[in-house]
Amino acid sequence: MKNNTRAKSKQLDGLTIHVLDLLAPWQPVDAKRMFGGIGLFAAGTMFAIIIDEILYLKETLDAKGKPVPCNIERNYFEYDRNGKTVALFYYQVPEQALDDSQLMIELASESYRSACAQPKKKKKKPTP
């Protein structure tokens, strides 16, 4: 089987390597160190993050930007910014997905589609 993963950092943790192996049959996935963790990208679009040895996938959102109901309990990634809790639309992957490549690929595919459907934020051009 061809390994479709590419690491942008040579020092990846065990969880990241394991997740990349689970996703290898799906499509090429890049792992990039960022935000004190690791972002996972497919075709240049970030669909997952790994923070503190926990994998979070981008939530599947409807056309109005609201989470799509599902039968998996969702524990969302949160962090503190200036004394306020900030919640992102990334949920902790269920434990069973870490042992099941097919389930991991299904969840990653949904997250990737949702990430691709989100409008891209325009970068501000520097003023001369």
Briefly say what this structure is.
This protein is α+β, with helices and mostly antiparallel strands. It contains 2 helices and 7 strands.
Main attributes of the structure:
128 residues, alpha+beta, Yope Regulator, Chain: A, 7-stranded mixed β-sheet, 2 helices, 7 strands, 33% strand, disordered N terminus
Helix and strand arrangement:
Blueprint lengths: L4 E3 L6 H10 L5 E6 L2 E6 L2 E7 L2 E5 L17 E6 L2 E9 L8 H17 L11
Parallel strand pairs: 1-2
Antiparallel strand pairs: 2-3, 3-4, 4-5, 5-7, 6-7
Helix pairs in contact: 1-2
Structural account:
This protein is α+β, with helices and mostly antiparallel strands and about 130 residues long. It has two helices and seven strands. The protein has a single domain (about 5-115), classed as YgaC/TfoX-N like chaperone (Yope Regulator, Chain: A). Strand 2 (about 30-35) and strand 3 (about 35-40) form a beta hairpin. The relative contact order is 0.17. Residues about 1-5 have low confidence and may be disordered.
* Largest β-sheet summary: 7 strands, mixed
Distance between the termini: 51 Å
State Rg.
15 Å
What is the CATH top level name?
A: Alpha Beta
Query: Could you say what the CATH topology is called?
Result: Yope Regulator, Chain: A
**Spatial arrangement of strands, main beta sheet:** 1-2-3-4-5-7-6
Total E-strand runs: 7
Helix content: 10-25%
**Number of self-contained structural domains:** 1
How does the overall form come out from the CA principal axes?
globular
Order of SSEs: EHEEEEEEH
The CATH homology group name: YgaC/TfoX-N like chaperone
Percent range for β-strand residues: 25-35%
What's the architecture, going by CATH? 2-Layer Sandwich
Helix/sheet category: alpha+beta
- Total number of helical segments? 2
In round numbers, the mean pLDDT is 81
Unreliable spans: 1-5
